[in-house]
């Protein structure tokens, strides 16, 4: 386990989406976060006390979380210098970047001298199997998206809360660095060799013999040219009974690809269902989760209602309005004593 409390790093970042790991921890593990470390040129904030490494250590922080993402997931020089400053105060350092902390000699040397640890979250387990597609028991839901970084992790975690409030045994299965830091376990799928992606999900979410649910955090998008491979492996390996579609209506184009437009919701849902049917023929959609952070309250509610009418599925912003409509619909759709509901997409 990574020692808490945490100091959440924003550094010099000016990309709201790029600080999603720090933001996720601030939202879902607030009791473990003592402050945020941002430089003067960063306009972003998590609403936590602003601290440097020494101040955070004095406040009890045990670990600096480098909770930012950048192009290529590299350790820049400024980030390395800040990590060294944290180590010098006696803090551990954790990173979800593709470039490993252990591959930077200065960090390794400093950590050894101070007796602290470096945690690379994007290390997949060893000896993952190749996926088989063999039918396995249990209820599994997978979140899918029109794009990457549209709220799949948030929707999955908030749906877990809503189901547990109804007495349902619901377990979050993390597949990205933020989710792993929140849950304390999982598989960083984008660091898994492609041949083993579906097998990794079969391992992460094995057969279960109760009426509970494994809620699997989605990654990327089937329609994103850069990340569709991970999304496809997830759809096959998850063998989901249910899909929850996530979408950010404020997006003008695919993240990082201004020459690619986002797919229509109906088209996106149909294609995800089609691909999922290879290993789960009876899969069905159970709702739409919108990220309405850039809309006012009235606009957000109107869009959720219009989307629900258009697709014939419950639609909500789980973070803003709660995941109750989707949780209730799921339990009706899959209640063992009742036949399947007639509305299906």
TrEMBL record:
Residues 130-326 form the D-glutamate N-acetyltransferase-like C-terminal domain. It comes from the Bacteria. InterPro entries: DgcN-like, DgcN-like_C, DgcN-like_N, P-loop_NTPase. Residues 44-124 form the D-glutamate N-acetyltransferase-like N-terminal domain. This is DUF1611 domain-containing protein. It comes from Sphingomonas lycopersici.
């Amino acid at each position: 386990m990574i020692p808490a409390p945490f100091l959440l790093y924003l550094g010099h970042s000016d990309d709201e989406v790029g600080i999603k790991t720090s933001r996720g921890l601030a939202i879902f593990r607030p009791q473990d976060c003592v402050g945020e470390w941002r430089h003067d040129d960063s306009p972003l904030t998590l609403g936590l006390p602003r601290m440097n490494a020494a101040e955070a250590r004095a406040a009890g922080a045990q670990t600096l979380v480098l909770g930012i993402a950048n192009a290529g997931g590299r350790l820049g020089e400024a980030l390395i210098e800040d990590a060294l400053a944290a180590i010098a105060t006696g803090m551990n350092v954790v990173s979800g970047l593709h470039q490993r902390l252990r591959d930077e000699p200065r960090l390794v040397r400093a950590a050894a001298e101070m007796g602290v640890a470096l945690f690379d979250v994007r290390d997949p387990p060893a000896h993952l199997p190749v996926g088989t597609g063999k039918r396995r028991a249990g209820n599994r839901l997978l979140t899918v998206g029109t794009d990457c970084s549209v709220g799949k992790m948030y929707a999955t975690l908030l749906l877990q809360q809503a189901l547990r409030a109804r007495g349902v045994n619901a377990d979050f299965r993390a597949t990205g660095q933020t989710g792993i830091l929140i849950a304390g376990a999982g598989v960083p799928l984008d660091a898994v060799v492609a041949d083993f992606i579906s097998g990794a999900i079969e391992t992460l979410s094995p057969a279960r013999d109760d009426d509970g649910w494994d809620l699997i955090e989605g990654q990327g998008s089937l329609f994103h040219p850069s990340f569709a491979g991970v999304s496809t492996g997830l759809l096959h390996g998850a063998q989901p009974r249910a899909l929850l579609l996530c979408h950010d209506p404020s997006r003008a184009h695919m993240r990082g690809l201004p020459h690619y437009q986002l797919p229509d919701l109906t088209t996106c849902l149909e294609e995800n269902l089609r691909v999922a049917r290879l290993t789960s023929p009876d899969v069905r959609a159970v709702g739409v989760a919108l990220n309405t952070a850039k809309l006012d309250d009235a606009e957000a509610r109107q869009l959720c209602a219009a989307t629900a009418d258009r697709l014939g599925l419950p639609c909500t912003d789980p973070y803003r309005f709660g995941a109750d409509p989707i949780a209730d619909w799921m339990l009706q759709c899959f209640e063992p004593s009742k036949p399947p509901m007639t509305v299906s997409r």
